[in-house]
Amino acid sequence: MTKKERATFVINTLNELYPSIPIPLDHKDPYTLLIAVLLSAQCTDVRVNQITPFLFAKADNPYDMVKMSVEEIKEIIKPCGLSPMKSKGIYGLSEILIEKYNGEVPQSFEALEALPAVGHKTASVVMSQAFGVPAFPVDTHIHRLMYRWNLSDGKNVVQTEKDAKAIFPKELWNDLHLQIIWYGREYSPARGWNLEKDVITRTIGRKSVLKEEEKKTSRR
After folding, report:
1. Contact 169, 178 (CB under 8 A)
2. Which positions are annotated as active-site residues?
């Protein structure tokens, strides 16, 4: 199969498995999405969804958020990890949204990435999921699967994003990155991977990855 044929197989398989695509992080508007995505760095979406109701009950907008102290925010979000950095980021970006954007989340990559604790991936998630702008945020699942599927060499997430954008049609990016995340969690995880259940990797996977997995299976 050519790379284009492999990409088409991925698209068709994911559309069959995930005709409707849930957004992993619970939110109600661009601001609560921005905060949830920021909290998800090195933390599971499940854990974030357990913590954000407590945070948003106190402050679900930048005006209420800055009424809290950094210390108060830190205490609530502690279970998500990296709480000193994340709490300062949440407080700082809330101040900037009030001062520069009338409390609204800006709709540009440049403006989002200029906010404290907001990197390219976070900005991409907000642009795609809150504003519908084509983006391809690469998380660990996408990075792993693009390599397993021989669609990227997996050197770094920047290269993986570039390769994904080159091979997949732009109009599919926003749905596709979510579909790949769900597929990675359910069928092609980093640990406890069962190749028999992973139809995409089994069909189009990188030969070296398949050989390595076969070796591991034979040793079990």
Report:
1. no
2. 121, 139
Please check whether residue 196 is in contact with residue 220, taking contact to mean a CB–CB distance below 8 angstroms. no
**pTM for the full predicted model:** 0.91
Contact 48, 39 (CB under 8 A): yes
What DSSP state is assigned to residue 105? P
Under DSSP, the state recorded for 172 is: G
What are the C-alpha distances in Å from 158 to residues 38, 110, 142, 152, 154?
19, 17, 12, 11, 9
Distance separating alpha carbons of residues 185 and 194, to the nearest angstrom: 12
Q: Please give the Cα distance from 12 to 146 (Å, whole number).
A: 16
Percentage of residues in the chain having pLDDT higher than 90: 95
| Contact (CB, 8 A) for 93 and 116 | yes
pLDDT band at 136 (very low <50, low <70, confident <90, very high): very high
Backbone φ, ψ for residue 108 (5° rounding): -145, 145
C-alpha distances in Å from residue 112, one per residue of 123, 127, 176, 193, 218: 6, 9, 22, 36, 48
Q: Is residue 116 a contact partner of residue 89, using CB atoms and an 8 Å limit?
A: yes
